[in-house]
Model the fold of this input.
Amino acid sequence: MTHRRFNGDEAEAWRSFVIDVFSRRIVGWRVSSTLRAELALDALEIAIWSRGAKALKGLVHHSDRGVQYLAIRYTERLADAGAVRSVGSRGDSYDNALAESVVGLFTTELIRMKGPWRTLEQVELATAQWVDWYNQRRLHSSIGNLPPGEYEAADYAERDGSAVAGKPNGEGAIKPRAIQTHPRWTISKPNCGALYKYCCQTAHARTGSPANSQ
Done:
């Protein structure tokens, strides 16, 4: 979770990210003008939606001791999805070191390079574009200098191929299960539009305001 003021310090934007530790993929994110439990909860909902609830049983969710992550609604939603919480102790960063690293990249590669920022909507759309670039084109040394999307695709293909090789006609092939825990930018909207639209719909559902259709 990260925070930034914009429009001459008259407004502020909070961002929350959910990252898959295995592939370094950002699987959920949310931008909001307020620091409430809904900020982290919306990012979690997008992560669950993007991975599929059936694939989350037994995953370990790492976070720090922020009040948003300890909120009753957040912990209950994790339990409903079958996730196990791992919350860092006071004064250490073992459970959120990866998240802090991603936030640092986000701040350096997008927020500081692309400002000044005038509206929350501007920050929100730029975040959607950056997340798509981060997942599909940015190279990560921790996963063999591949983008997260390519790394996952290669892993899925390898595991599916191993399963098919051991069974006649591919019968009984094992399907991969998600393992989950806790920016120059040119991009076509179709690449990030579905996730961006879902994020907006999730966010506006609680307020009753119409969802952004961009």
Q: What stands out?
A: Helices lie at 37-51, 67-70, 72-80, 97-114, 120-136, 148-165, 189-205. The chain has one domain: 2-143+179-205.
